[in-house]
Specification:
The complex is a heterodimer of chains A (249) and B (506). Chain A is α/β, with parallel strands linked by helices and 249 residues long. Chain B is α/β, with parallel strands linked by helices and 506 residues long. Chain B has 2 domains: 87 residues, Alpha-Beta Plaits (2-Layer Sandwich); 341 residues, Aldolase class I (TIM Barrel, Alpha-Beta Barrel), CATH 3.20.20. Chain B is globular, with a radius of gyration of 24 Å. The chains are: A alpha/beta (249), B alpha/beta (506). Chains A and B meet through helix 1 and strand 12 of A and helix 3, strand 5, helix 5 and helix 7 of B. Strand 12 of chain A pairs parallel with strand 5 of chain B.
Amino acid sequence: MSKKNSVTIEADNLNFRELNSRIRDSVQAGCSRITLNSVCGQRYIGLGLGTGLKITVNGVPGNDSAMFMGGASLIINGNAQDCLGNTMDSGTVVVYGHSGDILGHGMRGGQIYVRDSVGTRVGIHMKSYKQKKPVIVIGGSAGDFFGEYMAGGILIVLGINRGKQDILGRFVGTGMHGGTIYIRGQVSNFQLGKEVKVFDLDDKDHQIIEKYAAKFCVHFSVDKAAIFKQKFIKLQPYTHRPYGRLYAY
Amino acid sequence: MALKTYESEFKIVRDDSKCIACQVCVRQCANNAHIYDAEDEKVYADDSKCVNCHRCVSMCPTKALHIEHTPLQFMGTANWTSSAIRNVIKQADTGGVVLTAMGCDKKYPNYWDRILLNASQVTNPSIDPLREPMELKTIIGKKPDKLEFENKGGKVSLKTHLTPQLELSTPIMFSAMSYGSISLNAHKSLARAAFEYGIYWNTGEGGLHKDLKKYKDRTIVQVASGRFGVNSEYLNTSAAVEIKIGQGAKPGIGGHLPGEKVPEEISVTRMIPAGTDALSPAPHHDIYSIEDLKQLVYAIKEATRYTKPVFVKIAAVHNVSSIASGVVRAGADAVVIDGLLGGTGAAPAVMRDNVGIPIELAIAVVDARFRDEGIRNQASIIAAGGFRNSADVIKAIALGADAVYLGTAALVALGCHVCQKCYTGKCNWGIATQDPYLTKRLNPNIGSGRLMNLLRGWSIEIKEMLGGMGINAIESLRGNREHLRGIDLHDKERELLGIKAAGETW
């Protein structure tokens, strides 16, 4: 990599508009490696950016980071605020910390790995289409309304690094009509939305978890064998037409 | 308990002396209301299947057909109308929600019909638009508080940074109707007409078909709660982006395109697998406040490099003026308000007929609120919901709207007969359907021509009315409520509309 291809931007004293404009200018100038230092809540970092670009964020990126992202990879050395990966199209996000509420809202593709826990409303209305399949792997726990309205894709919750926190909140998979949620541990029935049921894993499920858990372990230097010491369960909608008998024609 | 007396709403009347059993009606009716009996060599009717869309009547070569409301009516009362009884029976049969389409079907007061326009007599001359210049050009977008210029050695230039604007040749646009709710040929007709007439059309929440990308400079792309078809490319294949919060026909509820209406082509633009339900949640789950809305407005501005105006569409509800004020403060370049009479491709009848407030009142209170707060220049007001003719449009502008959106009127121009069965997907006019046998009935060349005729006709009428008032630019009428007078209105209604009573002088 030539030195010209990489750039470091000091983000302190830059508002989101200036910072994102600097990032876009650097991409325009041919940079493929961008490091942002002292990021402190600036929104929209990585928004809409395409393949072949790696952005390393040192600090806390603001809301809607990686929104509409179209193939870039975003490495976050810190916690992320809300709405990370909103309506994300493709690419990879790795969070070395926690992530806030509404992670991966309406996400259509790409992968998000969060080392620790995430807030509420995570994975709402994720959907897959053809070769695009959004995947979120969470190391810790997740809050209420996990996978609400989910129409496609994969959510994996590993439940490590969560202290005494329950692995999931309530209303898990409410309105879910596609996709799969894998949980390393157990959830009670009262936590589940009425559209989902607990299923046992088959071989294909194991392959899927192996594949993404392996990547998680590489990102965060976690012992893969330890992860598989505990049993996973699978949540899926038991009807693809939860609203089939709703109308009087 | 088979009570299905609701089945026949209409009666198909066939004049046997004219019918030549050519079976055009049989082929034209997607509801199978006409049946050919080869043995008898006659066409019979199944009245229960008729939706009164007039396709067969229009296409019958010998004019042998006629549709009536069925003479068999429930005894009923003024309260228990036939439709009220029919709906109760229907729901007792199915346990479902009564679904309907198009706009509100209840007789609420129509304020357009209680507002009268002014004209010049003696004290100021009226203008003949056929001979004198008359400006309908409308600019949509945020206007600066003041303009600053700089003078460099005698060369004067504008110093103020102008935000992106849309330029319309007439104060009319086509409202959001998604590909899925209407056919690709309907979208092509709208896009082509908007492109050629110099206005804008709106994709609705269903993505943009690849064949329509060439009209991008006249396309408003919509982002709604389902985020169907939304990515960076989509947002940038546009002249403006509209965030849909609500819809006049069904404020507060989401959308639901059932899987059977998601064939391959629809699935490509919506970016979901064919055959799956496309659910648009009631709220955007990343917007629970004005601050959250601002976050999405600026996300879209970032995604489009601040080159496109961002609209926010809300339904006219009780607190519309406060909400609209918040929308402006969230950074929207235009607020779209969709009134009580706004249309839809599918909505529960109880929502369509009972929720929201009339657009006339909404325009008036929003415009007044913006003026009071000194933010009227910060966003344009676009009104939608049931505009039937150019008089409705010009009254809306005099109340304070910058432009209006047409949905139903545009579809009627394309052949719609307002049968309100869009949700069945069996539109015999080729508009609200994806069945290739039906959609080919709508020719985009003819359709766009008809839409342009409509725009031309209304524009001429608007010029005539403006000329009559002695005004030569639509800009001078905007929010000019002195040119309106109310008739048959309560004081409170006139107060809200900000207009004097008919008979009151300046």
